[in-house]
Structures are given as C-alpha cells and as structure tokens.
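REQUEST ID: PR-0412
SUBMITTED BY: lab tech R.K.
PRIORITY: routine
TASK: structure prediction, single protein chain
INPUT:
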Amino acid sequence: MASIIQNISMDCADPYSLCEFWSQVLDTPMDPADSPGDDEVGFDLDSGQTLLFIRVPEPKTVKNRMHLCLQPRELRDREVDRLLTLGASMVDDQRNADGTGWAVLADPEGNEFCVLRSAEERAATA
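STATUS: complete
OUTPUT:
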C-alpha cells in the first residue's frame, strides 16, 4: 500500500499574507474560515491536496530544498510579469532567446519557485 500527499506545507512568518499571495498566483480562493493572525491557513488545490501555510518562529535562511514548478495557462513571460506585479521577485532568469527555459522567482517571503513554459509553448517547439 502506498501513501498519498495530503498537503504541501510552507513554513512562513505571516501565513495569511503568504496564502493571499499564492491564492492569487493560482487563482484559487482561500478558505473563508481563515483570517489574519491565524497560525495555519491554506486552500485546496485542483488535485485535491491542500497548500498549507504554517507560522514558524525562525526566518528562511537558505535556498529551498523543494519548490513548486508552475506551468502557466498562458504564455510564460506574461505569467512572469503578472507574478512580479503580485509581489514576487526574480531570482534567476533562465529564459532563452529561442523561447525555451524557465524563470526562478521568489514569493514575498523568499521561497523560490519556477515558472515553466505553457503547454502551448512546449508544443510549438516540439
């Protein structure tokens, strides 16, 4: 018998604010029972798991050992611009002139994540 992933947890200083950011990134509503000041907040993903944000006392100090890779529904570069507007920051731009590559961004608390090419962009270069 195998295990299943129930939730993906992110340690953070301000769970509510970080959950708001990721809620906008993924266009998924937060749990309406959550409120500012809660130590644990989150929302359900399309896959059935929960993305959970948990308050911890220590700050982030090093690169994430695990991160999310996002495949945008539209063009990668448009999504990167949208996420930067929401409060993400560019960590490492690995996009290439031929349209391949990815961008490594960080959320407002410094957690790294990648933005890959959309399915449409992958199909165009296959």
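NOTES: The chain has two domains: 1-58, 67-126.
REVIEWED BY: pending
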